[in-house]
From TrEMBL:
It comes from Nothocercus julius. CDD domains: HP_HAP_like (cd07061). Coiled coil: none annotated. This is Multiple inositol polyphosphate phosphatase 1. Its main location: membrane. Belongs to the histidine acid phosphatase family. MINPP1 subfamily. It catalyses: 1D-myo-inositol 1,2,3-trisphosphate + H2O = 1D-myo-inositol 2,3-bisphosphate + phosphate; 1D-myo-inositol 1,2,6-trisphosphate + H2O = 1D-myo-inositol 1,2-bisphosphate + phosphate; 1D-myo-inositol 1,2,4,5,6-pentakisphosphate + H2O = 1D-myo-inositol 1,2,5,6-tetrakisphosphate + phosphate; 1D-myo-inositol 1,3,4,5,6-pentakisphosphate + H2O = 1D-myo-inositol 1,4,5,6-tetrakisphosphate + phosphate. The gene is Minpp1. Keywords: Cell membrane, Glycoprotein, Hydrolase, Membrane, Signal. The keyword Hydrolase applies. InterPro entries: His_Pase_clade-2, His_PPase_superfam.
Length: 273
């Protein structure tokens, strides 16, 4: 009997953001860091090792074919819990290189690579806080909470930009084709941030014994069922008022239509970094 509404404009914002579609999704140069890494020394070594294992000339393989084999290994392990024969082609170092290749793609297409990647999610971010505000106001007036639980279902492409908008998992140095070794301890690991069945939960608490009105409502975040420390405090619980203050600019000034408007001149996607 659940009330279900399909709202692709809210949850598939990336399809409706013209700036993102034109400058990133359909721009052949937007993934230049990914393309450069495919031709770089780390991937060349992987290609040579895999070609050797298959008794093939290295020239018959490319990064895309090797990535398909690696993903087949990954999928069978994750979904069927079996070790695919494809896994025998790869060493641990190969796996790290191929993980970085995927992280590069997610970083530049869904993460911090271009501002529009995350800014396009601001309508979803604002909707979350509007729902929290409504629950808080109903609680203050002693009304029953009209929507005690709200479930929004999307994809990794929905969640990754939202987390980037909130500033999570941002490394000091951008992920690039030429800094693989320096990024060994990077925060941005898409396989850990948005794995299968990834989820982000906002939990609003009403604290009956708060010492001050400002402390009456507090909030926690859980990413993939684990508490996520807030950016502004590095704590796992925050005053709701403090959280809104921290994100005030996004809540008040990020407007989807304006953010997603196409530039009047033919600006290259790289200029938006």
């Amino acid at each position: 009997e659940a009330d279900i509404e399909v709202n692709d404009v809210l949850l598939r914002f990336f399809e409706h953001c013209r700036r993102f579609v034109a400058l990133v999704e359909e721009n052949s140069t937007a993934m230049h860091q990914v393309d450069a890494f495919k031709e770089g020394p780390e991937m060349r070594r992987v290609l040579e090792r895999v070609a050797g294992a298959l008794c093939l000339p290295p020239g018959e393989l490319n990064a895309d074919l090797v990535q398909v084999a690696f993903l087949t290994c990954s999928y069978e392990l994750a979904i069927k819990n079996v070790t695919s024969p494809w896994c025998s082609l790869f060493s641990e170092e190969d796996a790290k290189v191929l993980e970085y290749l995927n992280d590069l793609k997610q970083y530049w297409k869904r993460g911090y690579g271009y501002d529009i990647n995350s800014r396009s999610s601001c309508s979803l971010f604002q909707d979350i806080f509007q729902q929290l505000d409504k629950a808080m106001e109903e609680s203050k007036s002693s009304k029953p909470i009209s929507s005690p639980v709200i479930v929004q279902i999307g994809h990794a492409e929905t969640l990754q930009p939202l987390l980037a908008l909130m500033g999570f998992f941002k490394d000091q140095e951008p992920l690039r084709a030429n800094n693989y070794a320096r990024q060994a301890q990077r925060q941005f690991r898409s396989g850990r941030i948005v794995p299968y069945a990834a989820n982000l939960v906002f939990v609003l608490y009403h604290c009956d014994h708060a010492k001050a009105p400002r402390e009456e409502y507090q909030v926690q975040l859980l990413l993939n069922e684990k508490l996520l420390p807030f950016q502004h405090s590095n704590q796992t619980i925050a005053l709701y008022a403090d959280l809104k203050d921290y994100y005030r600019d996004i809540l008040q000034n990020c407007r989807f239509e304006e953010e997603c408007e196409l530039p009047k001149n033919n600006t290259a996607a790289a200029d938006e970094l």
